Structure prediction request, 214 residues.
Amino acid sequence: MAALITFYFLLALVSFTNAADPDMLQDLCVANTAAGIKINGFPCKDKVNETDFFFAGIAKPGATNTTFGSLVTTANVEKIPGLNTLGVSMARIDYAPGGLNPPHTHPRATEMVFVLEGQLDVGFITTANVLISKTIMTGEIFVFPRGLIHFQKNNGNVAAAVISAFNSQLPGTQQIGAALFAATPPVPDNVLTKAFQVGTKEVEKIKSRFAPKK
Ligand SMILES: *[C@@H]1O[C@H](CO)[C@@H](O)[C@H](O)[C@H]1NC(C)=O
Ligand SMILES: *[C@@H]1O[C@H](CO)[C@@H](O)[C@H](O)[C@H]1NC(C)=O
Prediction:
């Protein structure tokens, strides 16, 4: 009897802590992104074929001549409609020497990175503000728990690249700097000056750095 109660208790615990993408109710549900209907995910397309499940977009390195010296190429449901309802996706990130994938979170997924080439200094920060960080090399893996702020920096002198895996068809990305300093409409200066304990001048300076280049 006690064993049975323990079993049901554990079962309840498992089902209550399962908070990934919802489970699928059919073999496949290829996203119809043109349906114009708002639901949790996308409605299913009528006719499907192999192209709905295929993507060659992360086969080659992305151009890293960006502000931060890194480029994320997503391979999620927006690129691969066949991923709709399947609860997984990937990405490729390329880093120039010195390149940074700046601090960001994925509200809907845990991420695993596998280093394709080069080496990276990576880390995430817990809700207790503890930094968990490590240098990872070609062939190695690191995990960023769902929702926690994390980053990757290429401190090597050659290019680096990773393949990322996510337990969501669309993990979502919120870059901390851009969210606070480049939102539309803007987050009020008086919120940012108080939050960061600096003056309006400093806030305006950071905002100007995030403004689109002309
Ligand atoms: C697959 O379907 C798409 C339309 O969704 C069509 O454009 C494409 O030609 C089809 N490919 C094959 C190989 O049948
Ligand atoms: C990055 O480099 C490519 C060529 O390698 C060029 O086409 C592109 O305009 C450059 N982008 C920026 C933002 O400089």
